[in-house]
Model the fold of this input.
Amino acid sequence: MKRRNFIRTTLLGVAAIQMGFRGKEKLKTIQIDDSFFGKRDDTIFTWLGMAGALINCRGTIILIDPLISYGANSNTCETGDRLLVPLPVTADKLPKADIICYTHADGDHYAEKTAGILNKRFNPVFICPSVIADKLKKLGVEEQRLVRIKDFATYPAGNAKIYITPALHDWQKVDPWKREDCCGYLVKTPDGTIWHPGDSRLIPELKEIKNVDVLFFDVAAVDSHLGPEGSAIIAKTSGAKIMVAYHYGTFDLPPGTYGGCDPDDALPFIKDLKSEFLKPDPGEVLKLPLKYESE
Done:
């Protein structure tokens, strides 16, 4: 009987491991060194913790929802939340950033400290909903470096293209987020496609996204999130080959909250999928194109 081994690339080398639903008692941060950010002939990516992602597409550096600055001390995030694990990289030491994408303005996705540092150090392009663009202008970001998203639009991103997927994250009782106040990002690289859907209910348009290689899988089983069930549905409809869990294990939050859910709660919903379910450590580097071994 053949079994499929997923080839996972780390900055320390390449290791072939048989993928199953591997359990972990606690995440362990892997520090991202400068070699991640160099010119290359493929695409690598990593989970930054919480909802953050970092992508190097053949030398183009893209960040999604980075919260990569400490707060009062090294045990606290810039958001004020106590960290369960250290940050894998910090905004003040990041060697390069070309494009910064924000899905929405909730505090577990956008924070001014990281945005301000990245803006001053790199003058990057920011792709984001208008509500965040207005905040960034107050931080000194010029309008010409602000791309205000529109649902289903495609924007150039160096060696990649970024397609906007819609989102509806209307959790507030008063003045809830509306369409285009939130979004997701489908990052199309020459080596494969990475989809970060952001925070959203399961809306019909999400089931129309196809040909996804990597799906960032929202495990937060709370109101106005995809949660494990919704994430499993779009994993199936999009044809995702691997699913990378996020929204957990980063902040010290009560169980069952937006950042305190157990990723293993997804297992009943994904047991019949052909996709691989990954729970990488923050900073653990994965590679496109995906490679498999048979034996």
